[in-house]
Specification:
alpha/beta, Metallo-beta-lactamase, Chain A, Rossmann fold, 2 domains, seven-stranded mixed sheet, about 25% strand, globular
Length: about 350
């Protein structure tokens, strides 16, 4: 039913690709991060992921009625059509039942459950189980075969409680401002930045954000997520007594801060690594992650109760750790040719 073809997952009976990095006729997109979302002819996703993708794909989108597909001959050239499915509202294709359910990763992020005569298959995509201020609560469903990401699949990756991380972030921001320094938090524009906004805003800290973060924050607001007041960064009007949230890809300080007293921090699960902030070129690192840590990966497998676990996007030796626990586990190599079941 599910095969790995040239490194991409494909459900042949459904003619459905899964998080393919090449443009396809019809592809399920688990969430809006660029390493999972591409402008396919038809994108199968949750309504909130579709909102995010419309912004990211800009003018290349057309809207289609929910749960329907336009005939290829009727689609505008180079357009993207969205086939939207809310969480836990199943639909049927070729004698299979498909359901999207929350991954808790970023707004709209989903997991895919496919049920048929061969059993139940779950593709997690990126997920986390920790609580969040800005993301739909995650779910776990029982299945026969589980394909999960294992980004932090080593025992040292145990994240502190979210309240503890939030407290440290707030303390860093306040201490910086008290020293007449502008605190700058580097965070991905989708997901982590909005979570940082919610954490810091709850402490009544004044916020400014990069334009890309503002664009995603507007999608969150449209979806009903409550975010604190903030300003979009403008070099001409920026107030250096604000906390600035900036994408990690642009770690060169913005013009308004050049020559000023600045303190920087990176928000990433890799902050668990000793000296991670030296690698990122920042003064501090906070383990605010939108992925599951090692205990959460194990908890997911325990609760899903699969007979087979397939792994991707992470440490290959997590396979051996699962096998040591008596779990039938295998890592999917990028160019393997196999049938999952």
């Amino acid at each position: 039913m599910i095969s790995l073809e040239s490194g991409a997952l494909y459900a042949g009976a459904l003619d459905l690709w899964i998080d393919s990095m090449r443009s396809r006729e019809r592809c399920y997109v688990s969430h809006g991060h660029a390493d999972h979302a591409r402008a396919h002819r038809t994108v199968v996703a949750t309504p909130n992921t579709a909102r995010i993708c419309r912004v990211r794909f800009s003018r290349r989108t057309t809207r289609a009625p929910q749960l329907s597909l336009l005939p290829h001959s009727e689609r505008p050239d180079r357009s993207v059509t969205f086939e939207e499915h809310p969480f836990n509202v199943p639909w049927y294709e070729s004698e299979h039942r498909l359901t999207l359910f929350s991954a808790g990763h970023v707004l709209g992020s989903s997991q895919l459950l496919i049920e048929g005569e061969a059993g139940a298959f779950v593709y997690t995509g990126d997920f986390k189980l920790a609580p969040s201020l800005t993301v739909e609560p995650p779910e776990i469903k029982r299945c026969d075969v589980l394909l999960m990401e294992c980004t932090f699949g080593r025992p040292q990756y145990v994240f502190p409680p979210r309240d503890e991380i939030a407290g440290e972030m707030i303390a860093f921001a306040r201490e910086s401002l008290e020293c007449d320094a502008t605190p700058v938090f580097f965070a991905y524009s989708l997901g982590k930045a909005q979570e940082a906004m919610a954490i810091l805003g709850a402490a009544a800290l004044p916020l400014a954000v990069h334009g890309a973060i503002d664009a995603m924050a507007r999608v969150y607001l449209e979806a009903g997520v409550v975010l604190p007041p903030y300003e979009r960064y403008d070099a001409q009007t920026f107030d250096p007594t604000r906390v600035l949230i900036w994408p990690p890809g642009g770690k060169a300080l913005p013009p308004a801060l050049r020559g000023r007293n600045v303190r920087t921090a990176i928000l990433t699960g890799w902050a668990i690594d000793r000296g991670a902030f030296f690698r990122y070129g920042t003064e501090r690192g906070f383990a605010l992650s939108d992925h599951a840590d090692y205990p959460a990966l194990l908890a997911y497998v325990e609760r899903a109760q699969p007979r087979k676990v397939l792994l991707n996007h992470g440490w290959r030796d997590f396979t051996h750790r699962l096998r040591a626990l008596g779990i039938d586990a295998e890592y999917l190599e990028p160019h393997a040719q196999l049938s999952l079941f």
